[in-house]
Specification:
five-stranded antiparallel β-sheet, D-amino Acid Aminotransferase, Chain A, domain 1, 30% strand, binds guanosine-5'-monophosphate, alpha+beta, 7 helices, seven-stranded antiparallel β-sheet
Length: 252
């Protein structure tokens, strides 16, 4: 708490607040307990969620760094803070899919839920709640000067590399890595890193091929009771990290 006490956030999103760090090349990411869906129309608070999601982000970002995929991570501070490199976030979401699910099946019904996608499918979405994050392609990104040609290639390369690393890791844990969303930020020109967060909120992780048991946010999206949603967050922490969450952290 002392890291942010007395400070005003420089930005606030649905699940995080961003504060300036005393060192100008860093920022403080504070993970909130808020949970939202349907572009923010559905909103609740779950104690311990900020802890769980900050910790899983740190855990997975470290895994990516080790595999040569750069991220924004500098340091994790218990329970729910990540000190991160200060980067210029791009206004896009990058989704990578190994198995057809969610919006892909809804919008393009010739894909069937659970259908394997090989090679994986990468999609870009322009971030706008008002426009419901419309899909754009890499030509739009360059025409809009959101990314250079080199950065577009870098983004695709890092996304596919991250996908391989995470898919292997989850497979070893007996889980099916269906899809995930990441965001990129610019450290310097033509030098992107994965930023923001990576946890159960930003992926589909199935325990069975039909997706009935899953360690992700889809239960909340489809109306599960909050107690059950909270239990899923705790299970997700355990299954991803292989560790027991701290009781005190879950109450934070
Ligand atoms: P879909 O496009 O099928 O809704 O989602 C594809 C993947 O990206 C899912 O793993 C989903 O959790 C993630 N995703 C899509 N949009 C968002 C978003 O706005 N926030 C987060 N955290 N994840 C998202």
């Amino acid at each position: 708490m002392s890291l942010i006490s007395g400070k005003q956030p420089i930005a606030e999103g649905k699940t995080k607040r961003v504060y300036l760090h005393d060192e100008p090349d860093k920022v403080i990411l504070y993970f909130k307990n808020d949970i939202t869906a349907l572009d923010g129309l559905k909103h609740d608070v779950i104690h311990g969620k900020g802890y769980i999601n900050a910790y899983i982000t740190k855990y997975l970002f470290e895994k990516l760094e080790k595999a040569g995929v750069p991220t924004q991570l500098v340091e994790y501070v218990y329970p729910n803070i990540i000190i991160a490199k200060k980067i210029q976030m791009l206004p896009i979401e990058v989704v990578c899919r190994n198995i057809a699910a969610g919006h892909l099946v809804k919008k393009l019904p010739f894909f069937k839920n659970g259908q394997p996608l090989n090679p994986p499918v990468i999609e870009f979405f322009y971030k706008s709640d008002e426009l419901h994050d419309p899909m754009v392609n890499e030509y739009h990104l360059q025409a809009l000067r959101i990314t250079s040609e080199k950065e577009t290639l870098q983004m695709k390369d890092y996304t596919l590399k991250a996908n391989r690393v995470l898919k292997d890791f989850f497979n070893k844990r007996g889980l099916i890595f269906v899809d995930f969303k990441i965001e990129f930020g610019r450290l310097s020109e033509d030098n992107l890193v994965i930023g923001d967060e990576l946890n159960g909120d930003s992926m589909r992780l199935w325990a069975s091929p039909d997706g009935r048991k899953a360690f992700d946010k889809d239960g909340y999206r489809s109306g599960d009771a909050l107690d059950k949603v909270r239990e899923t967050y705790i299970e997700t922490f355990k299954v991803i990290t292989g560790e027991e969450p701290l009781k005190e952290g879950l109450e934070s």
